[in-house]
Specification:
The complex is a heterodimer. Chain A is an alpha+beta fold. In chain A, 25% of the residues lie in helices and 13% in strands. In chain A, strands 1-6 form a two-stranded antiparallel ribbon. In chain A, strands 2-3 form a two-stranded antiparallel ribbon. Chain B is mostly helical. In chain B, 28% of the residues are buried. The chains are: A alpha+beta, B mainly alpha.
Amino acid sequence: MARMKFLCDAERCIECNGCVTACKQEHEIPWGVNRRRVVTLNDGLPGEKSISVACMHCSDAPCMAVCPVDCFYKTSEGVVLHDKDLCIGCGYCFYACPFGAPQFPQDGAFGLRGKMDKCTFCAGGPEQDHSAAEFKKYGRNRLAEGKLPACAEMCSTKALLGGDGDVVADIYRTRVLTRGKGSDVWGWGTAYGKPETRQPAPPQAKS
Amino acid sequence: MHGSPAWGCAARCVIALLLASMPQAFATTQQQTPTQQEAARQQQTGQPAEAQREITQPLNNAPFWRDVRAGDKNAYQTTQVRGVETNVLIQNEGEIWRRIRNGPITVFGGWLVVVAFLAIGLFYWWRGEIMLHEPRTGRVIVRFTSWERILHWTTAIAFVTLAVSGIFMLFGRYVILPLFGYTVFSTLTIIGKNLHNFIGPLFVVCTLLMILTFIRDNFIRRYDWTWMRRIGDFLKGRHVPAGKYNAGEKVWFWLGVTLLGIIVSATGLVLDFPNFGQGREAMQIANVIHAVAAVGFMALSLGHIYLGTIGLEGSYDAMRHGTVDETWAKEHHDYWYQDVMARRGRKAPGMPPKTAPASSMQEGWKL
């Protein structure tokens, strides 16, 4: 099975926020929740670079490790998903995540955050594929339709790549060899640097 | 590697300042070259070193990516997404927090509570309840007013609720989840988390009122040191002189209620109100302190609960009904007993008690 990975090419990203818009549109995400965001480094200075970042679906996912109710699971394709029915909205995944991926619909007093929401790699959730419940909670399940994540598909400069990690790495390697610079695979060391610690489980393993 | 970015950034800034100021020092008597003017301008505008390096070393991205780990300390790091710390591309502290929480706090904290519980159980099995030596007189002394009792039990119920829900959130995944399964455990933890978050502020108020209410008789006296030295005698049921509260109760008041109570209250409020926009680092630090203090608080509370219920005859009645028998007061808190007797104008202790009048029970209640 392919290991799904995201890669953002900082030499190509032009901070158009097309990926952010595509994500919001595809999954009909409520206001205030941003599964994906673009961060610009050295904004307005020589050498400005932008990176589109969302959940990187880490190998040794910190969110998964700290969740008090163990609501996360990993698909056979390495996609980190979670069960919103189990989520207690404590925010621990948000403390632990290096990428700031976990989002909460509220940040109310008395810790009323609501159920955590994050990038699913367009792979839905534990509900039945393409069901109304799955779409409402997790958004569209494009992987089950045989498609890749909407953000990467919509990227105007193809800076954001999402899919089989080996294919993504091949594309990037070719680019680096051609242009002779910009070989920094941003975030991969943090996200995939550690060996897999948990056996992938089928989506319906819990609840 | 994870703890160093702040220092690394500071060191780089110092070096950059030194390097930038050196040519200026030499250039004071001669005209500045355009490069020097550019460097000086960049120094004044506070642009980071990467921007300058981009001109001289366009292909060297390594320092650039290292600086990304400095997070929002980089003023030129922006995003269109509104919110707290959304311009931070990567945060290192989460990994440290994860290791501390999932490591020592869960492992040692869990075993601390278990060992404390087992130690008390073992002691009870070994020594049993500490009984009164003399028969009860039937005359009672008021130990706790109704305000003190209402406050105590409100705090106690809040404490137990917080402790149980806290145990669910910290250890439940390893201990309770395997027993109940995902759905039931999650439902219980959702209830527990909301109880924790709503009862927490009540506990903060109770803690402050507890301190104000009970501080008067909890100041450390000379005889408390004697009591501490003779704690073994106390546990064997021998007589050790004490004031209204013995040194053990004073330790619980100062270390438990006051110190740990204030620590868990302050850190708990940081965690309970994310609407004030505090960052992740504040919450990670607050969470670590909160968990460490709470685990210690729970372990200490087991001792207090034990001696207040099954460990010591008559102590539960004191907080339940507010009164204690004169024999209990004399055997456990004789200095306090003498004070009460002196205030009442009765006979000094040690003398054979007067035959109890029929109305003494009523008198006791009225005091």
